[in-house]
Amino acid sequence: MNARDWCASALHEERIAQALWDLAEPTPTKVRAILNDLGYVDERIHDLKQSGAATRFFLDLRDKGGRLCLEGSAAGEQTVVDKCVAPATGPFTAGGRKQ
After folding, report:
1. Where are the domains of the chain?
2. Averaged in consecutive runs of 10 residues, what is the pLDDT profile of the chain (99 residues)?
3. Is the pTM of this model over 0.85?
């Protein structure tokens, strides 16, 4: 992950987590609506699915050769959004978390 991705990840993580924090009953439909309202288009939202009380998702944020993606779990006060890496080119597939 390059320096640009690293810096951008913190801004995206905070913005999304704050928007999802107070979401009651985070269903995939509600999570998608919030992500869309934040400007993330459907083509960038992947694997949006219910997992128990949480809704999990990936966001493809690759831009200009970057590899940034985010992995999220919307679960009210237990909401977590963290950076991950994706291939620089080709179809989106999420890789592991990159610290």
Report:
1. 3-85
2. 88 96 94 97 96 95 92 95 92 71
3. yes
